UniProtKB/TrEMBL annotation:
It holds the Pfam family rRNA_methylase. Transmembrane segments: none annotated. The lineage of its organism: Bacteria, Bacillati, Bacillota, Bacilli, Lactobacillales. It comes from the Bacteria. This is rRNA methyltransferase. GO terms for molecular function: methyltransferase activity.
Length: 185
C-alpha cells in the first residue's frame, strides 16, 4: 500500500539518519517528528528544533519525555538556523511541515520568505547523502504562495549537487500535502 506523506517522510529520514547524527526539525509542532528523530539519533546524536509558538514547544517537551536531553528546542522561527547552529556542524537530515499548528491559531503560519532562508541554511550544512524533507500543507490562506515558493526554489537547485523528489496523491479531494525530498550528492 502506498504510504501517506507523513509515513513516507519518516521512511526517507529513517534511511539516512543513524545514531550520533545531528538533525533538524524545522517546525516542531506537536513533537511527533522531533521524537521520531530523537529516537533515530540515539544518545550520541542531537535534534535541533524550531517553532514560534510556546504551545508547540511545550507539546514537544511533553512528547519527548526522557528523550529531551537529545534535543535543543528553540522558541524561534526556522529562519534563525544561521544564528543558532554553527555553519560547520554537519547536518544529516531535516524536516519541515509547512502550514500551521494543528488545532491551533490558523493565522500563525509558516511563511515563504523565512522557509527559504531556513532551507538555504540547511542545505549549506547538509552532508553528502543527507536529506531535507519538506511536507507542504497549503489549503489555508497563504499556503498556495508558500507552496509555489518552495517548489520553485527546489526546482532550481543544481542537479549536479542535489536530487529532488516530489511525492503527492493527485486524485485526492481537497489539498493533499506535497512531499519534497532534497538529497545532497
Amino acid at each position: 500500500m502506498l504510504q501517506t506523506a507523513l509515513q513516507f517522510s519518516h521512511t526517507l529520514l529513517q534511511e539516512v539518519v543513524q545514531q550520533g547524527d545531528q538533525v533538524i526539525d524545522a517546525t516542531i509542532g506537536n513533537g511527533y517528528d522531533t521524537r521520531f528523530l530523537a529516537e533515530l539519533v540515539g544518545e550520541t546524536g542531537h535534534v535541533y528544533g524550531y517553532d514560534v509558538q510556546e504551545q508547540a514547544r511545550q507539546a514537544t517537551i511533553d512528547r519527548l519525555g526522557d528523550l529531551i536531553d537529545r534535543t535543543t528546542l528553540h522558541l524561534s522561527g526556522h529562519q534563525t538556523i544561521d544564528a543558532t547552529i554553527p555553519v560547520d556542524l554537519p547536518i544529516q537530515a531535516a524536516i519541515f511541515n509547512l502550514g500551521y499548528l494543528p488545532k491551533s491559531n490558523k493565522q500563525i503560519i509558516t511563511l515563504p520568505e523565512t522557509t527559504q532562508i531556513a532551507m538555504e541554511a540547511i542545505l549549506e550544512r547538509l552532508t553528502a547523502g543527507g536529506r531535507m524533507v519538506i511536507v507542504i500543507y497549503y489549503g489555508h490562506d497563504g499556503g498556495e504562495k508558500e507552496k509555489h515558493q518552495v517548489l520553485h526554489y527546489c526546482k532550481t537547485l543544481p542537479q549536479e549537487q542535489f536530487s529532488v523528489l516530489s511525492y503527492q496523491f493527485i486524485n485526492q479531494r481537497g489539498n493533499p500535502p506535497i512531499l519534497i525530498c532534497v538529497e545532497k550528492k
